[in-house]
Amino acid sequence: MTDSPAEARDYRGTVFLPKTPFPMRGDLPKREPAMLERWARLGLWERLRKQSKGRDTFVLHDGPPYANGNLHIGHALNKILKDVINRAAQMAGHDANYVPGWDCHGLPIEWKVEEEYRAKGRDKDAVPVLDFRAECRAYATHWLGVQSAEFQRLGVAGDWADRYATMDFESEAKIAGEIGKFLLNGSLYRGLRPVMWSPVEKTALAEAEIEYHDHVSPTLHAKFRVLKAKAEDLVGADVVIWTTTPWTMPGNRAVAYGEEIDYALVHVEGVAETSLLKVGDRLLVALPLLPGFEKEAGIGPHTIKRVLKGAELEGVIAAHPLRGAGYDFDVPLLPGDFVTTEAGTGFVHIAPGHGEDDFNLGRQFGLPIPETVNDDGTFTRHAPGFEGLHVFKAHTAIYEAMRAAGTLAATGKLTHSYPHSWRSKKPVIFRATPQWFIAMDKPLAFGETDDATTIRAKAREEIAKTRFVPDAGRNRLDSMIAARPDWCISRQRAWGVPIPIFVSKQSGEPLRDPAIIGRVVEAFRTEGADAWYKPGAAERFLGPDRDPKLYEQVMDIVDVWFESGSTHAFVLPPRGLPFPADLYLEGSDQHRGWFHSSLLESVGTNGVAPFKAVLTHGFVLDEQGRKMSKSLGNVTAPQDVMKQYGADILRLWVMNSDTALDLRIGPEILKQQAELYRRIRNTLRWLLGSLDGFSEEEIVPYAELPELERWVLHRLTELDARIRAAADPESADRFAWTGVYPEIHNFCATDLSAFYFDIRKDALYCDRPDSLRRRAARTVLDVLHRCLCTWLAPVLAFTAEEAWLARFPDEEGSVHLLDFHFVPAGWRDEALAAKWARVRELRGVVTAELEKARVAGTIGSSLQAAPVLAVPAADAALLPEEAWAEICITSGFALAQAEAPEAAFRAAPGAKCARCWRVLPEVGRSAKHPGLCLRCEDAVESLS
Q1: d(CA 532, CA 521)
Q2: CA pair distance 679, 744, nearest whole angstrom
Q3: Are 638 and 608 in contact (CB under 8 A)?
Q4: Which of 346, 372, 451, 814 is the most exposed place for a label (fewest CB within 10 A)?
Q5: In sequence order, what are the beta bridge partners of 616?
Q6: Hey, is 343 helix, strand or coil?
Q7: Where are the beta strands (DSSP E) in 474-601?
Q8: Is residue 742 reached through a cis peptide bond, with omega within 30 degrees of 0 on the bond before it?
Q9: Which residue intervals define the domain Zinc finger FPG/IleRS-type in the entry (predicted)?
Q10: 248-257, 356-365, 590-599, 866-875: lowest mean pLDDT where?
Q11: What does the alpha-carbon distance between residue 564 and residue 595 come to, in Å, rounded to a whole number?
Q12: Residues 300-332: tens digit of each pLDDT
């Protein structure tokens, strides 16, 4: 049959295809910087603050990153997660102000400046302290600016103009004031205690500044000859100790034993050729550890003369292994509950200046604490025979001295986990030095009550009240607080806030004078902490009534963890922000870092925790789960990702991850995120295109919407509830973001693109403009666009803005000035949801059968089919046949009954409509439009 001119007509111009300026390609690396400029031009942050006045506040207090280098991927994870939570709280109806900040003092910056000195051959100690501090300030200022720009490039919104920094004069003044509070309430004291000491950096270190690496340590078995004992058979025997720190032997002043441990008195009757022992030696060793010691020391035949309990060693006096070489003092054997039989010999040599247990036992029994090691790790004159040697190079000399003395029982090596400075990457030592401490267990009065408690006890009370996400963080932080020693807050460096204290040379006690603290705070506020180092500072701060010659001006600086722990004091109340903050959010390592120091600082000065909730995230690893390192070449730099993909891809990666665990990133993972982004972008693009020309006159009331549209609105209520629960700080599920955005992606890809959009394309493209079905679909698409743009705005900050402006172009407008779109509770319909879940199951049976026909080449399109679906009687009334055809995107449909659902292919009878492509018997009946079905004829005529 030959087509007539009418049949050959081109109807493409009558089809309502999507039309939008929103491009398919994101081209984010180019578009995002322009968007940032637009937001700056609009004064977006200032407008948000102005329009949010009077709302309930939400404050996430920013833990300060360190200002000494470009951002790494861990920074990106941290700040993006904070930004999403802040933006979501804002859009959930709060006033979510966010003040970003920086940690600017301390050793890392000093270290960098000193490196520059060394490269130029300059002596740091010859540089005036104020000049050196000025260079440190300039270095920190440079990197603060770099990092600020990089954070903003990530799309992080905040009060960048009024950011905080620990080196701001106001901050330094407040930090000094906080130190003063501890001084005045009596919890700050100077004491001699062993602390982690870096010989390279010549300063004490906090636990949070320590990392553990495998280290090969020389080991030593040493003999302590028993001089006095209640049991005569012990006199002349040798107590054997084992240590992985031979350098501590000059500092030895005792040997510890376990009172309940069984010790063997061993008589040596044969030794290996290489053994340092000799036949006839009488040795005391823990019985359970004897087999291992025999092997290490080369002991052959031997006899156990007797076994005794450690308690029988009470009162034993031994000789130092280097007796006669400057170590002619007695060495008592003392009971120690820390002695075990896990390794060694069951005896622990005690150097009170070089270990926590050693120090505590020494203090308990009044042992002397010799200062055998200098700041730089070399021996002092109190280590006779070894003066000037570095402790990490002294083992050979100590071996030889003990070999000459006949007290060396064995030597060896041990690979074990050992503390290192995380900055210099060099091993540290325990070293007793005079330091400033905050007492954890001294009773203090908090608040207006007279009830006294300790910082430790109060901190643990506050932990119990705090919400932790994940909850495991509670026990982790609590166990650290429960076991920690007094807080050492002093550092022997120059770049930081000085501990503004004067000590009486006569009494050795610090001056606890509020007037002095007040003068210091006021000076720091106007001149910065440099005021402490200026000529005449002592006279100035002590005032006219005290003679500076009678007082020591303390020149230690305060630990940077104390500084960052006190940020709440100079960031929150001074800016009118509520205290405590709603949320602290950092990596899981901050249980021993910022969360820890902030809690102690705030409890010590305010009696309460500075936070209501604590959220932790994991670390970033490469795609194989390895730690990133330049040597492995597996580092993913956020700057590189933004150049290739854009910030929104990084932001999506964060929120598609379970941030409570360690996250992985690399080229393949980024490609996957880019694909997920593409699907979301395509959803937005199709929505925008299908809403072209939409007006409020088209809106169909909810009661008149078809079931399919009402099902979509029901799904919106489910997603809206999930998002609001995570975004609302008062919700039981607050901050539970894991899985939220994957669910939104799944909604876009599965519920919308692969189901609802696929079904409604026919109505949207081919129905006449005023048809109820088309208007109903566009009514729902309007709501979808508003919901998705606002839901995505916290994460895809740039793309959501672009998608909003593509539909609502406004020079002054922004999606970020909006709240989440209102979703009425009345849209929730569980019965309808259950019905449509079954419809989708049965649809799957039909589409599987159609796919078989497509693969076989029987059909090219589902519109060529009019399948038969046989269903159980319970499903027969779900939908009429014409609705099934619409849902399955076929031209016809028939229902039948069966015990179990099954579908059968059947070709659709009739001809293909030239406009909608459905195959229908009615095509060809129209005289005016013989190539069209009746629906399309009506639509075309309505356009005339």
Answers
A1: 10
A2: 11
A3: no
A4: 451
A5: 586
A6: coil
A7: 487-488, 490-491, 502-504, 551-553, 557-558, 583-587
A8: no
A9: 912-938
A10: 356-365
A11: 10
A12: 888 888 888 888 898 899 999 998 888 888 999
Listed residue (174, 111, 101) closest to 144, CA to CA: 101
Nearest to 604 by CA among 436, 437, 446: 446
Cis check: omega of the bond before 18, within 30 degrees of 0 = no
Domain with CATH 1.10.730.20 in the chain: 15-42+627-828
For 402, the 3-state DSSP assignment is: helix
Distant-in-sequence, close-in-space partners of 573: CB < 8 Å, separation ≥ 6: 579
Q: 631 Cβ partners below 8 Å, 6+ apart? A: none
Tokens of 313: 């060693």
Return the CATH architecture of domain 844-942: 2-Layer Sandwich (3.30)
Instruction: State both tokens at 809.
Output: 């172009």
- Distant-in-sequence, close-in-space partners of 4: CB < 8 Å, separation ≥ 6: 930
Residue numbers belonging to the annotated binding site: 586, 630, 913, 916, 933, 936
For residue 352, what are the contacts with CB-CB under 8 A and spacing of at least 6? Answer: 194, 251, 253, 254, 358, 359, 361, 362, 363, 367, 368, 369, 432
**Residue predicted with more confidence, 327 or 450:** 327
For the annotated binding site for L-isoleucyl-5'-AMP, the residues are: 586
* AA identity, residue 725: A
State the binding site for ATP.
Answer: 630
DSSP character at residue 817: G
pTM above 0.90, yes or no: no
- Element at 178 (helix H, strand E): helix 169-184
Cα separation values, 729 from 75, 567, 623, 717, Å: 24, 22, 33, 20
- Quick one: tokens of 761? 């394309």
One-character DSSP codes across 583-652 = EEEEEGGGGTTHHHHHHHHHHHHHSS-SBSEEEEE--EE-TTSPBP-TTTT----HHHHHHHT-HHHHHH
The candidate with the shortest Cα–Cα distance to 345, out of 241, 250, 271, 208, is 241
User: For 159-193, how does the pLDDT look when each residue is reduced to its tens digit (9 = 90+)?
Assistant: 999 999 999 999 999 999 999 999 999 899 988 77
Q: DSSP letters along 39-76, please?
A: HHHHTHHHHHHHHTTTSPB--EEPPPPBSSS---HHHH
Measured between alpha carbons, how far is residue 409 from residues 223, 262, 291, 304 in Å? 6, 21, 15, 18
Question: Can you say whether residue 428 is alpha, beta or left, with left for phi > 0 and alpha for psi between -120 and 50 degrees?
Answer: beta
Contact by Cβ (8 Å): 745, 93: no
The sign of the dihedral angle between the CA atoms of 750, 751, 753, 756 is: positive
Token pair 């979301």: residue = 680
Report the C-alpha gap between 865 and 906 in whole angstroms: 6
Mind spelling out the 3-state secondary structure of 182-193?
A: HHHCCCEEEEEE
Residues flagged as binding site for Zn(2+): 913, 916, 933, 936
Q: Who contacts 9 (Cβ-Cβ below 8 Å, separation ≥6)?
A: 914, 929, 931
**What's the average model confidence in pLDDT over 717-745?**
90
Where along the chain do the CATH 3.90.740.10 domains lie? 204-432
First to last CA, the chain: 29
Looking at the chain, the domain(s) classified CATH 3.30.2320 span 844-942
Residue 212, SS3 per DSSP: strand
C-beta neighbour count of 826 within 10 angstroms: 9
Three-class SS state of 413: strand
User: What is the rounded CA–CA span in Å between residue 111 and residue 201?
Assistant: 8
How far apart (Å, rounded) are the C-alpha atoms in residues 68 and 798? 28
Q: CA angle, 539 as apex, 537 and 541 as ends, to 5°?
A: 65
CATH number for domain 15-42+627-828, candidates 3.40.30.10, 1.10.287.80, 1.10.730.20, 3.40.710.10: 1.10.730.20
Q: Architecture of 204-432 per CATH?
A: Alpha-Beta Complex (3.90)
